[in-house]
Amino acid sequence: MQSLEEIVPAASNNINTKFIVLEKGRIALEGKQKMCLALVADETAAVHFQMWGDECDAFETGDIIRLENSIFSYNRNNLLLRAGKRGKAEKVGEFTMAFVETPNMSEIRWVPDPSNSKIYVPEAVISPCSRVFPPMH
Amino acid sequence: MTTNLTARGTYEAENPIEISLREDFEFLKPQLSPPFPLTVLLTQEEYFNLNKALIFGILTQPHLVKLHIKHLHAIITDGYKSFTCILVNIVNELYAKLIDSVKIQLIWVTKEMVDVLAIGFDELLVALLRQCLNGDFSEGNLWLCLEMVTLFLTFWDCLLDEEPLVLTKALYVFLRLLADHCRVSSNVVIYALKRMEVEFCVLLLRERFSLCLNIGRDLIRLLQDLVHVPEFKGILKDFLLNPKQFRADGFGDISQVYRTKTPNIVPRWAVIGWLLKSCKKSYVEANLKLALFYDWLFFDENTDNVMNIEPAILLMVNSIPKYMEVTHTLLEFLLIVVDNYDIERKDIIIKGVSRALSTLVKKGVIGSLDVLIRCDIISKILREMLGKLVIGHVG
């Protein structure tokens, strides 16, 4: 199980983690599939999580979700965490979980590692908090 | 045959308690049917796991329940303490999600535990009473209420001898439930349930009033909600006119009940603090704070009640030091409102808040305003501004 601050963009379904849903965006249609962006976080970091199909209705704000074999990658220039076709998202609890809103792993600019172009490394913080779901205060 | 305890949504992971119970059940399955060994020597862990396996068996295999319970009685060496402890955990963590057949088995085994006077059966009953919900007229909830009131009437003598305090707790629950169940008259199920709840409550009030006194003054409030039920009307009347009839030591007058505080009720300020921390939108939070302080702004001890201004001060004072941000944000809000709510009529507001503060001290809600004014972890500027407000003028 990884904490959110440890996740790095990659083209593989290798992320196992757990987080709480802080905020859900509007459900939209992408092609024929439902899609919904959410702000999620654990005690180390926040990230944008993309729900797909029935997940959009199954998960609510306050749900604690466990992700298995999921992927953190770019989708139309947005860096998102999602279960993906080979991964699994499951509700394991609700309401009580410590979290932070900074850093947001989706709001970091990542560049290929000069010594190994297959690995991404953080280059700069674009925004300390989510720009899609700005904090209240 | 079902092998699940709970019903689960599509994207819902299985509960770890259920997984662990099933694992022990599957692992120990060969030992759960005869022939049983004549002597059993188990380590503590093996003993606990066998308890878990038997619980899973009892809850999911109604057709084998006699076998499992006989097995259980034979292996017990701790007065059923582990067994009831696991059951309490299931009730607290899973009850709402349990499938109906499992709930039926759960109540059955609960009666069995009362019957053998298992250690901890009272906690099990209290846990189940907590699941009898107010304002819930669903079939499942009414069923549980009926099962529980039946249980309390059936085991009346035994509960009275062994764990009389659990009767007091049941009385509190059933009086509250009756306020719901008396509102619906057309439903046959609710009518029958209501009659049994009345029977239980009247029995305890009439026969064992000393136990009822443990509830404190809330008892009177609950009974007043039910004054339209003839039995309770009669009891209230006797409280006033015929208190000796209750044969409770030291009970001579209703005022003695008034003076007894009802324990363990969450105070208003704590609930408001929780609501405040749950606000997601800043304007909602601001509205809540204004509502909390509104009576402060125009307070007049001759016409206003100290109860209306009490939650805000208690929330500020009791949040020190663990929730300092609550104290800070409230105090800051109050000072900003005093300055800005109605600039033209600021003098009225200063007077109101100043009177509110002095009334809170005078009535003993807080010992002194020093808890705020001399509190080092509150910013100095806020403390100075508050100090000026206390004497009724703000610069």
From TrEMBL, chain A:
Protein name as annotated: SOSS complex subunit B homolog
Keyword annotations of the record: DNA-binding
A Gene Ontology cellular-component term: SOSS complex
Alphabetized GO MF terms: DNA binding
Domain of life: Eukaryota
Record keyword Protein biosynthesis present: no
InterPro entries: NA-bd_OB-fold, SOSS-B
Source organism (scientific name): Anisodus tanguticus
Coiled-coil regions, chain positions: none
From TrEMBL, chain B:
Listed InterPro entries: INTS3, INTS3_N
Entry GO CC: cytoplasm
Residue ranges annotated for the Integrator complex subunit 3 N-terminal domain, each copy included: 46-264
Alphabetized PANTHER family for the sequence: INTEGRATOR COMPLEX SUBUNIT 3 (PTHR13587)
Full protein name: Integrator complex subunit 3 N-terminal domain-containing protein
Species the sequence originates in: Anisodus tanguticus
Record lineage: Eukaryota, Viridiplantae, Streptophyta, Embryophyta, Tracheophyta
